[in-house]
């Protein structure tokens, strides 16, 4: 495969040879989870770094050469540069590590990981929410552990949505097209030196996609881009945005991702032992696996059996709308020449996507993925129970408990989500017992050392991060002030009056109605009393996007925005626009409390609360998803959801108010003579100690590997 530098050297002629490693570094997201590497870019010029929105490719492209000449003459910079470039090369060349120690035989056989979204960094807008960050964290952790993996996804040129809140609180979607040449992606070139274009096999009308690549440490992520001249005009838009609203467009996306994605790997000459499907969207990759085998001479039943033995499927949602179902007519539009290639007729084909308890609706992607994979898992213990009940009718002969859907609880990539300053503080106390604790951060014992951090130090670090969050919110507001007309009400609604010395609750997530962003407004009088309490005031920061087609979500958002402007709430509510990876970092590092109150059991897992906890932010959450496993009585607050649909908003909000008034507020405002709320800090320590190892992506990836990987590889060998 051609190296990306082939096309790139010409584009960075102003980067001196002595610093040419910066280009390699900029094109590998490794820099994003190594703060020392990030500093290397920042030190070239702080303003340019800020202007690039922390995107080193853009920065290197746009920077005036004299800045580079400046650091070239700076021995301190060059010293750091050499050390970090060395570390980077050693990291990339190191193929030992946890994985090869434990699985020497499986070493050379990668897993092909398919996902419709990846949350890696804000310069790559290829995510909508939690599913994407889960995938992104999975890749980073596989890189760190040396797990051989190759990933497939989309190059969404318009991303998910770029949220702009109108003065009346309605969410607008601003279209922003990704500048492909300023993003950390490179064209995959063919032998002739042109960008590789694949045709999605046996699909009519024909579809084509160009190939791009992102380097995620050692893991290559290959992306499909349909916006090319080879495609019919209506097919050029397939990869424009995440999760197209129209069913036909959605189906085309999933065809390109699953079938086209697999074709792309074949054309790249990348062999793999097994397939891991992150949610049902890419499940057509299994079809293509069968077709490839049938084309090579296998019978359909044998091909199906082998695809099954070498595939794992992770289901992520108990929300019925999260499962795609495609009408038969629509499927026939594209697949009529395809299933013949697998040696089967229409009935057998549609039988693959048949859901026995939902007859006649069409091809069910989740039912299909469950049927065609040997291993399937939910993403938390509770979600396992829910998924087994939900899909019981696929296994009519078994009891619900025996439905073969297991669970592996999600986790978050520690180097990505633990603030670097906080990390340094932890490290000061962990190092004395284990200098290599980073390698062992999924070991809960290490985290007991949190106890040795003096309360004052942990508290001051937290306040520093809180201050950074407030500075950030004001700075964003200030920038908008210069570019748009603002009513005073909008300034208040967007958080200008928020005060860093006040107990601060964060609520940031997608605005789906089951997440109940407005639950806390259920009894407005009581909420007002809480927020405007003269001795123990509280403020809430909201952030999140509603799906472009979800008017209900947009209405909830608008209502919150209106509340935020009402004087009765005392300027104690702020809505922060355009929630994304960067804002998420500030929020999960800097608020005091992370609130979550979905309708159980709709939250399959949830990961933002894990990110918060890792940084000492306390969870206040309904018992659903991961928090059922995470909460142990002393590390935050929990309440049971009311199962009755009629009364649940009333009783769940009452539970929230009670906890706030009786526990959260008194504990926060209980500083002793030294100005430190020791009770609060004790709970912060308890939270960090009890969740960091268990909810790390390291623990999660090790579980995927140990439970599925060797059998998958064996399944592939035994043909
Ligand atoms: C972690 C994260 C999510 C997922 O959070 P949930 O708790 O699952 O809602 C969504 N968006 C962003 C930007 C994140 O960083």
UniProtKB/TrEMBL annotation:
EC numbers for this chain: 2.4.1.1
Span of domain DUF3417: 15-124
InterPro entries: Agluc_phsphrylas, Glyco_trans_35, Glycogen/Maltodextrin_Phosph, Glycogen_phosphorylase_DUF3417, Pyridoxal_P_attach_site
UniProtKB keywords: Allosteric enzyme, Carbohydrate metabolism, Glycosyltransferase, Pyridoxal phosphate, Transferase
Modification N6-(pyridoxal phosphate)lysine occurs at: 611
UniProt keyword Oxidoreductase present: no
Biological processes annotated in GO: carbohydrate metabolic process
PROSITE patterns, per database record: PHOSPHORYLASE
Any one GO MF annotation of this record: pyridoxal phosphate binding
Cofactor(s) needed by this chain: pyridoxal 5'-phosphate
Catalyzed reactions: [(1->4)-alpha-D-glucosyl](n) + phosphate = [(1->4)-alpha-D-glucosyl](n-1) + alpha-D-glucose 1-phosphate
UniProt cross-references to PANTHER family, sorted A to Z: GLYCOGEN PHOSPHORYLASE
Family listed: Belongs to the glycogen phosphorylase family.
Protein name: glycogen phosphorylase
């Amino acid at each position: 495969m051609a190296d990306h530098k082939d096309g790139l050297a010409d584009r960075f002629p102003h980067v001196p040879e002595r610093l040419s490693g910066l280009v390699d570094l900029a094109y590998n997201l490794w820099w994003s989870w190594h703060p020392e590497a990030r500093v290397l870019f920042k030190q070239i010029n702080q303003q340019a770094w800020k202007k690039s929105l922390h995107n080193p490719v853009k920065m290197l492209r746009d920077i005036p050469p004299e800045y580079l000449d400046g650091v070239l003459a700076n021995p301190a910079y060059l010293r750091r540069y050499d050390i970090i470039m060395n570390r980077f090369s050693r990291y990339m060349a190191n193929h030992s590590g946890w994985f090869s120690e434990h699985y020497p035989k499986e070493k050379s056989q990668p897993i092909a990981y398919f996902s419709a979204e990846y949350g890696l960094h804000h310069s790559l807008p290829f995510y909508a929410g939690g599913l994407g960050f889960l995938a992104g964290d999975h890749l980073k952790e596989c890189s760190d552990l040396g797990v051989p993996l190759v990933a497939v996804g989309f190059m969404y040129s318009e991303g998910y949505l770029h949220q702009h809140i109108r003065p009346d609180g309605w969410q607008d979607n601003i279209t922003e097209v990704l500048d492909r040449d300023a993003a950390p992606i490179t064209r995959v070139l063919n032998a002739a030196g042109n960008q590789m274009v694949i045709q999605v096999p046996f699909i009519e009308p024909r579809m084509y996609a160009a190939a791009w690549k992102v380097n995620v440490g050692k893991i290559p992520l290959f992306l499909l881009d349909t916006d090319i001249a080879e495609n019919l005009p209506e097919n050029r838009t397939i990869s424009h945005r995440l999760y197209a609203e129209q069913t036909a467009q959605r189906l085309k996306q999933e065809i390109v991702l699953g079938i086209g994605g697999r074709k792309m790997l074949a054309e790249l000459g990348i062999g793999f032992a097994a397939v891991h499907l992150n949610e049902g969207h890419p499940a057509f990759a299994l079809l293509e696996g069968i077709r490839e085998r049938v084309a090579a001479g296998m019978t359909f039943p044998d091909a199906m059996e082998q695809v099954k033995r070498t595939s794992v499927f992770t289901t992520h949602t108990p929300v019925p709308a999260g499962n795609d179902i495609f009408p038969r007519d629509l499927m026939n539009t594209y697949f009529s020449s395809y299933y013949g290639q697998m040696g089967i007729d229409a009935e057998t084909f549609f039988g693959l996507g048949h859901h026995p308890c939902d007859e006649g609706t069409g091809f069910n992607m989740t039912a299909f993925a469950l049927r065609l994979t040997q291993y399937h898992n939910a993403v938390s213990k509770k979600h396992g129970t829910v998924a087994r009940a939900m899909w019981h009718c696929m296994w009519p002969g078994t009891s619900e408990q025996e439905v073969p859907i297991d669970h592996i609880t999600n986790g978050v990539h520690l180097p990505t989500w633990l603030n670097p300053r906080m990390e340094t503080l932890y490290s000061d106390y962990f190092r004395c017992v284990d200098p290599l604790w980073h390698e062992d951060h999924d070991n809960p014992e290490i985290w007991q050392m949190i106890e040795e951090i003096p309360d004052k130090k942990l508290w001051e670090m937290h306040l520093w991060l809180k201050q950074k969050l407030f500075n950030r919110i004001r700075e964003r507001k200030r920038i908008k002030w210069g570019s748009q007309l603002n009513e005073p009400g909008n300034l208040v609604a967007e958080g200008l009056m928020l005060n860093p010395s006040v107990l601060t609750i964060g609520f940031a997530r997608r605005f789906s109605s089951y997440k109940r962003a407005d639950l806390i407004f259920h009894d407005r009088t009581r909420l007002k009393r809480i927020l405007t309490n003269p001795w123990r005031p509280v403020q809430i920061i909201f952030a999140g996007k509603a799906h472009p087609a979800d008017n209900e979500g947009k209405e909830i958002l608008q209502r919150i925005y209106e509340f935020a402007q009402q004087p009765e709430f005392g300027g104690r509510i702020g809505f922060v626009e355009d929630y994304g990876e960067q804002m998420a970092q500030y929020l999960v590092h800097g608020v005091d409390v992370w609130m979550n109150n979905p309708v159980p059991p709709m939250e399959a897992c949830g990961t933002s609360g894990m990110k918060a906890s890792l940084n000492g932010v306390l969870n206040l959450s309904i018992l659903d998803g991961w928090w059922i496993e995470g909460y142990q009585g002393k590390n935050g607050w929990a309440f049971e959801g009311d199962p009755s649909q009629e009364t649940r908003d009333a009783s769940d909000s009452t539970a929230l108010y009670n906890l706030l008034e009786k526990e959260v507020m008194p504990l926060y405002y209980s500083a002793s003579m030294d100005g430190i709320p020791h009770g609060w800090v004790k709970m912060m320590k308890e939270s960090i100690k009890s969740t960091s190892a268990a909810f790390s992506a390291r623990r999660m990836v090790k579980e995927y590997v140990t439970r599925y990987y060797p059998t998958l590889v064996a399944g592939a060998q035994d043909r």
